[in-house]
Design goal:
about 220 residues; mainly alpha; about 80% helix; about 0% strand; globular
Length: about 220
């Protein structure tokens, strides 16, 4: 009973970010599969990665190489394509779920550092970011490592960081690195930016109090 009550309280306290995440998922899914159901110039990377992944699975990938990307993404695309029998749908599923994860966990990261209200505003900025929307409906290899970077930040921005949080963060970042090498730089830059914003917010809030105490 208590466990059910706790889950209800968690859902109730996070109802707005959950609704925003669900809305983003439904909109991008609808646009992706009903209005963008064909290969475009934005999907060239998806075609390259899918073809390379198929060669790796077939055992003829000795000469396959991807600039600034690891083999994990192409292999994942190829595996999904072998199940779904449609390369476009396979690659888009990864993009949609990655974009949805970015929208949700961006709120969780902001909430770890700031208040829930600021986190909600930050999540709205992420959800309505045009590039997040475009990449979420495209066959690309970029969003999943970004999602993994945001996911890893969630663990190391907690108020009370434990050893398990550091291990999870490092493992998740390592998986993202297997998809795209830039995720390490994204995570590092984001971490520094969040720290700077945290310090700035404390200065803004505590600045007048310090001036009064000094005076």
């Amino acid at each position: 009973m208590s466990l059910t009550h706790n889950r209800y309280e968690v859902l109730k306290s996070n109802k707005y970010p959950i609704l925003i995440t669900i809305g983003f998922f439904l909109v991008t899914t609808y646009v992706s599969f009903f209005h963008h159901d064909f290969w475009t110039i934005f999907d060239q990377d998806g075609l390259i990665y899918l073809s390379g992944g198929q060669q790796i699975i077939a055992g003829v990938g000795e000469n396959v190489s991807f600039p600034n990307a690891g083999p994990a993404g192409p292999v994942l695309f190829a595996l999904l394509e072998s199940v779904l029998k449609d390369g476009l749908i396979a690659t888009k599923i990864v993009s949609i779920l990655s974009g949805t994860g970015i929208v949700f966990f961006s709120y969780m990261v902001f909430k770890n550092i700031f208040s829930s209200k600021i986190a909600l505003v930050g999540q709205l900025f992420i959800a309505f970011n045009p590039w997040i929307g475009i990449l979420s409906i495209s066959s690309v290899n970029d969003l999943f490592p970004i999602f993994m970077s945001i996911f890893s930040l969630y663990f190391i921005t907690k108020k009370d960081i434990k050893l398990t949080d550091i291990i999870f963060s490092g493992a998740i970042l390592g998986i993202g690195f297997m998809f795209f090498g830039h995720c390490v730089y994204i995570c590092g830059a984001s971490d520094l930016q969040f720290c700077a914003l945290d310090v700035l917010s404390k200065v803004i809030v505590q600045g007048p109090q310090l001036v009064v105490s000094i005076g």
